[in-house]
Each structure stands twice: as C-alpha cells, then as structure tokens.
Amino acid sequence: MPIYVTFYHLDRTMVGRTEGDITLADLMGYLDDVEKAKAVGYAKIFDCSVGQSSLLPDERAVFAGRLAAYHAKYGKQAGAFAVVAGPDVISRLADLNALVPPADTRPVQIFGDIYSARRWLAEQSGS
C-alpha cells in the first residue's frame, strides 16, 4: 500500500505518507486504518508531497462520499488535519481542496513542508 501510517498514541498524533500512485483502495484503507486504530480524534498529518494519484472521476466521487460519511459520523471529534503537498503546493491546492467535504468543520490546512504542518498542529492543540 503506498500510504504508510504511523500512530503516536502518547501524543495522539498520526502521520500518513504517500509513495507512488495512490489508488481508491489505498485511500479507503487509510480511513479504515484511522478507525481501527481508534485514532479519529488524533491530530493528523497527511504527507502527499511524493505520491500522486490518477483517480478517475467516478473514483473521486466514491471517495468524496466516503469522506462525507466519515465526517457525518465523527464531525468535530475528528482531529485537526494538516496536508503536506510539498513545494508544488499551489498546483495541488485545488485538487486537495476538492476532496475535503464542505461539512468538515475541524481545522484543516495545506502546507509546503512537514515542519510547518507540525508547528500548526501544535498550535491547534495549544502545545
């Protein structure tokens, strides 16, 4: 699976990192992993600065539906979400924002590097 997830249970954070071509199954597996680890409320970093995805429009719709159901179920309980898009952050912004459900009320931010993402997450938790 080209999405590798590390859970840091002591400080309630998790980091997902992509490699290679990301499929719909990979994205669904990521959400499954978050739920199985009981990490929904954790602060999250999703580093997609290396991986890429060529999801078809119908696959994007399926994933958007899954995200909407995830946020309907967990709402504000879901932890802050920092996306690391890498140096080409501007070209990835529209694509990444399109997948975030409008009803997602938790803090969500896109960054060019992981250090900025970590600082922001620390600010969100008041650390």
Describe this entry's structure for a reader.
This protein has 127 residues and is α/β, with parallel strands linked by helices. It has a single domain (3-120), classed as Transcription Regulator spoIIAA (2-Layer Sandwich), CATH 3.30.750. Helix content is 43%, strand content 23%. It is built from 4 helices and 7 strands; from the N terminus they run βββαββαβαβα. It has helices at residues 24-36, 57-74, 89-99, 114-125; strands spanning 3-8, 13-18, 21-22, 43-47, 52-53, 81-84, 108-111. The strands form 2 sheets. A 5-stranded mixed β-sheet has the order 1-2-4-6-7, sandwiched between helices. Strands 3-5 form a two-stranded parallel sheet. Helix 1 (24-36) packs parallel to helix 2 (57-74). The longest helix is centred in the middle third of the chain and has 18 residues, at 57-74. 22% of the residues are buried.
Question: Helicity level, as a percent range?
Answer: 40-55%
Q: Give the SSE string.
A: EEEHEEHEHEH
Kindly state the mean pLDDT as a whole number?
83
Strand order of the largest sheet: 1-2-4-6-7
Q: Given this structure, which CATH class is correct?
A: Alpha Beta
**Largest sheet at a glance?**
5 strands, mixed
The gross shape turns out to be globular
Instruction: Give unreliable regions as ranges.
Output: 90-94
Q: Could you tell me how far the N terminus lies from the C terminus, measured between alpha carbons in angstroms?
A: 32 Å
| Structural class by secondary-structure content | alpha/beta
The helix tally amounts to: 4
Provide the number of structural domains: 1
Query: Strand share of the residues?
Result: 15-25%
